[in-house]
Amino acid sequence: MPLREALSPSSSGETPGRGWSVLVVEDSPLQRRLLGDHLRSLGFVVRLEPAAPDALASLSEARPDAILCDIVLPGVDGFALCRAIKADPALDAVPVVLVTSTDVDESDRLLASRAGAAALVARRPGYDAVVEALVGVLDEAPTGGETDAGATLADLRDRFLAEGREEVDRLLDRVAPDADWADLSRAAHRWIGRGGTLGYPGIGERARELEAAAAEHEPGTARRVLESLARMFAGALAAHAEADGERAPEPRPPGSGPRAPVALDGPREVVLADDDEAVLAIVRTTLRNHGWRCHLARNGVEALALVRRIRPAAVIVDVNMPGRDGFEVLAELRAGAATRNVPVLLLTARHQEVDVLRGFDLGAADYVVKPFNPLELSARLNRLVHSSE
Description:
The chain has three domains: 3-140, Rossmann fold (3-Layer(aba) Sandwich), CATH 3.40.50; 153-246, Up-down Bundle (Four Helix Bundle (Hemerythrin (Met), subunit A)); 268-388, Response regulator (Rossmann fold, 3-Layer(aba) Sandwich). The chain is 51% helix and 13% strand. The protein has helices at residues 3-6, 9-12, 29-41, 52-61, 78-86, 106-115, 128-140, 153-172, 181-197, 201-216, 219-243, 277-289, 300-310, 326-335, 353-362, 374-388, and strands spanning 21-25, 45-49, 66-70, 96-100, 119-122, 268-273, 292-297, 314-318, 344-348, 366-369. A five-stranded parallel beta sheet has the order 2-1-3-4-5, with helices on both faces. A five-stranded parallel beta sheet has the order 7-6-8-9-10, sandwiched between helices.
């Protein structure tokens, strides 16, 4: 399907803009009006400004989801405006897409990269490339009300320990022969996934014992495991509190390494689907540092929609998700003519052989069991993409 048709509101029943707010900075009155009208027709909420000073004044009043800025502006050009935005702590997380009316050359690409732009795109009639770049950076950006995927590893660990300690107390009060075993199983699943990934493998392994006890409806075993988890969470929290005053500079997530140089117009795209915000955050950070553009989905329905629209180089999908689980997503992708060849890596806390075999029977390219090392996940993702080329 041509891109313009794919982006048409009438072709899919939904608009790609999804109510995202965009500040458009364009000095040409005609281009400003045409681009603004086009973005509004696609579901974006648009504000229009003719120059950098007007844009900065507008940004002081309201922060948009993204900024679309022409390179050539009167007085302060688009590169300088982008640098000013990225220098402001209140605005530096807002993605900036720079637009040029000519072909993108290496000098412009270098200037855009140094300015901190999320993308650099040539404007053509129809604005397809502009819209595609805009939707791409917005898909990648964290949204309000959700865990900030740019949170530091220490933030994620602190949140995991504090929330875990509270949840253990809640569950201990409810362990009985008629306990809500599904509730216990969900908590265990979260701790299995997050524990090892965030650096607490002992919590992850003990959570596996809780998952087994919940499956067998064994209140005595469940209580003993929960009491052990309570001590583990409390001990880790105490260690963090003791170290708060002398914490070293924040380390990168395990295996993330330095950020790889990526061309503004050429990072490989991956759809990452998991209902665990902490896992999304740490995996996204690692993959971005290794040259990937991540599009995030919190359930199977979102994952399928993203894959069909973006046509990514690969998909990472958690097996246990609300709505359609990872197996269902995989089966549906394999059934579609346009998606059957996209490599899919399954990510799950399930480690039974029957689950692994089911994933491969459905067409998974690889299977990673939580807890996992993000560096290993990145390496396996690169390997499966290269092998599919």
